[in-house]
Amino acid sequence: MNNRLTLSGAALLCAALAQPALAAEPASCQPVRFAEIGWADIAATTGVAMTLSEGLGYQPRKVMASVPIAFTGVKNGQIDAFLGYWAPSMDSIVEPFLKNDGIKVLPTPNLDGAKYTLAVPTYAAEAGLKSFQDIARFKDALGGRLYGIEPGNDGNLLIQQMIDNDQYGLGGFRMVESSEAGMLVQVQRAIRQKKPVVFLGWAPHPMNTQFDITYLDGGDDVFGPDHGAAKVFTVVPPDYETRCPNMGRLLNNLQFSVEIESQLMEKVLDKQDPQVVARTWLKANPAILERWLDGVTTFTGEDGLSAVRRHIGL
């Protein structure tokens, strides 16, 4: 009797030792603060990150901020992750934060194949407004205005620099700042009236399918080559991956495509909650979870994939 109990106990001990050790992250890692800057693409990707982290047992929340404030928050330890560093257009903004290791840019972009530069309705391009060098000739028809988005945005800064430096003959123009939604309302109004309008355009974004637009040539010196070809990176505090390695692994795994972001953004622009959008999209596209959650556990060290699948209702 006693021998059987001893053998059973030994068997249970061996079985327990054979199981992988569960390693919870420090309690300080459970709250995860994501910067959100009011752009549909960042709202969409942040919504996915928050949905996944919530399913893993973390406590995500978003902090609304302008681009410079988002980087400042990461540097000061008030924000844990910002998924919206567009390179190269934000390089001049990011440079001071990189000094003395103020922030860390994760090495693999969360989006490749993006673009960001000035655009016009295609009918305006067909009328001769095809490049940055053409804008000045259309000043009267444009009302001397170039449309940007929210104040402090990197694209707005580039437009203002062109105006201040009279680059491409834009010295007499005025930049109109509002928001992404406000700019698109103005574009839609101009298109209804068949008037020319010059505005910040980018991909991924549903504007590329909702409107017939053309990206202007000749802006390589300002927005970079190939119509502002861009990569989008995730930024974290320098020690974040050391302090919170599991969440760091998730953030490194999160890599999107232009197609995925466009699908998510369309719903976000319809005023749907980004986390609801993310949950719905993930239920319809569950295969991607294996890649995004590779090597990722729950906050308490359990199987991450199973936990997230339960969280989104699979």
Automatic annotation (TrEMBL):
Coiled coil: none annotated. Gene3D superfamilies: Glycine betaine-binding periplasmic protein, domain 2, Periplasmic binding protein-like II. CDD domains: PBP2_ChoX. GO terms for molecular function: choline binding; transmembrane transporter activity. Residues 1-23 form the signal peptide. Keywords: Signal. Residues 31-283 form the ABC-type glycine betaine transport system substrate-binding domain. One of its GO terms (cellular component) is periplasmic space. It holds the Pfam family OpuAC. One of its GO terms (biological process) is choline transport. This is Glycine/betaine ABC transporter substrate-binding protein. It comes from Pseudomonas flexibilis. The lineage of its organism: Bacteria, Pseudomonadati, Pseudomonadota, Gammaproteobacteria, Pseudomonadales.
